[in-house]
Amino acid sequence: ALHARWNPVPGRFKDYIAMPKFNMYQSLHTTVIGPDGKPVEVQIRTHQMHRRAEYGVAAHWKYKEDGAKGAVGADGGPGQMEGMQWLRQLLDWQKETADPGEFLESLRFEISGAEVYVFTPGGDVMALPSGATPVDFAYAVHTEVGHHCVGGRVNGKLVPLDSALANGDVVEILTSKAADAGPSRDWLNFVKSPRARNKIRQWFSKERREEMIESGKDQIAKVLRKQNQPLQRLMSHDTLTAVANDLRYNTVDGVYAAVGEGHISADHVVKQLVATLGGEDGATEDLAEATVPTKGRPRTLDSGVTVVGTDDVWVKLARCCTPVPGDPIMGFVTTGKGVSVHRTDCTNAESLKQHPERLINVAWSPTETSVFLVQLQVEALDRPGLLAEITRALTEQHVNILSASVQTGRDRVALSRFTFEMADPSHLESVIRSVRRVSAVLDAYRITGTSQTDPHRRHRTA
């Protein structure tokens, strides 16, 4: 009726009843050419809509308490329960935004800013800030859709991600299925919605935190090695948890991140670790227990092997094939160094058998003090953090790593070899399975110095 009486100004009609503003404002806006040819803006709304516009959402809820409390108001507008969605969205924003100033700025922008209305491929309407881009639309659909966004179609045509959307556009988002897909920092230069901006910042904050955790671990480990401190003992979960509590961090990762970001020094953390074990004396004792015996120093740990028919012969396990209980073994009498125990299929077995007078029968008899050396080789596609993750997988299996080496070939396949001590070799299969579960690991297997049992050795000779 209004447009039949006066001519409307094109592009000046707004229907905020069908698509309310973020702050639940509802009204019909139009501009017509009035008397004397002057433009006149007309706003049409119900008494309840006017009350909400004048006094805000709180007044609307108070008004609803005295009337109907359904999900839809008497005028067809959003009722009390639907209005709560607005408050829930505010609470979500507050949780996502750590900076109060940034939260208030985002809220002010949403309430006062102009909006564009676009459609999903399914026909649903989505309200976005004026100038919004396909990236804003993607994050409005779902956070993961935004993180994996790689392109967009507007009205069926591919457009750049920084293209501004217009009212009535039909927007479709193209996503990547790659597990490591993520947003670009450049998106922060053109996204308009606070939600998109906050989600992008959160993603990079989380990624940076993971980098800082790895950096903190490396810094602490370097200080421990520099001071000749027992790495495995001091870096145990119980010790680190105690230090985290002393330094008022909720988790061990919090300590690593603080070191990586420079909030506390690695030297300070190491001092706390040493103090937790009772000072330098306690740490020195643990180091002595974990150190591999050197030449000329008697081995205090039981080899787990006895010579058949006698108990007073010094027995040692050969390092060339590192036998463990369950392996077929043979004994060889050395000159002044007791009996050396080898696997029967050791690469040195043939040369030893040329001296039958020095061969002796031996048998497995492991005790609680027996410790055995194991060599493990890991084949994996080279990537950042690979060695750290494999080492962590071994440490979680409670093995004492003595040495580690890595070589990467032209095909980017990294060959990592670890030597560690185990008290119970029957646990070895569980250790290997744990390493194989590390991302990018192709295979993991025990190295025994025999062509029959080493997959990599068979591959070389093939």
Q: What does this protein look like?
A:
There is one protein chain. With 462 residues, this protein is an alpha+beta fold. The chain has five domains: 2-77, no CATH class; 97-192, Beta-grasp domain (Ubiquitin-like (UB roll)); 213-290, no CATH class; 305-364, no CATH class; 372-461, ACT domain (Alpha-Beta Plaits, 2-Layer Sandwich). The protein is 38% helix and 21% strand. It is built from 17 helices and 18 strands. The strands form six sheets. It has a four-stranded mixed sheet, with no helix packed on it. A four-stranded antiparallel sheet has the order 16-17-15-18, covered by helices on one side. A hairpin with a 5-residue loop joins β4 (115-119) and β5. It starts with a helix and ends with a helix.
Topology:
Blueprint: H1 2-5, E1 14-15, E2 28-33, E3 39-44, H2 47-55, H3 57-65, H4 80-96, H5 100-112, E4 115-119, E5 125-129, H6 134-141, H7 143-147, E6 149-154, E7 157-159, E8 171-175, H8 194-226, H9 231-234, H10 237-246, H11 252-260, H12 266-276, H13 280-290, E9 305-307, E10 315-317, E11 329-333, E12 339-343, H14 349-352, E13 359-360, E14 362-364, E15 372-381, H15 386-396, E16 400-408, E17 413-422, H16 428-436, E18 441-447, H17 455-461
Parallel strand pairs: 10-12
Antiparallel strand pairs: 1-2, 2-3, 4-5, 6-7, 6-8, 9-14, 11-12, 11-13, 15-17, 15-18, 16-17
Helix pairs in contact: 2-3, 6-8, 8-11, 8-12, 10-12
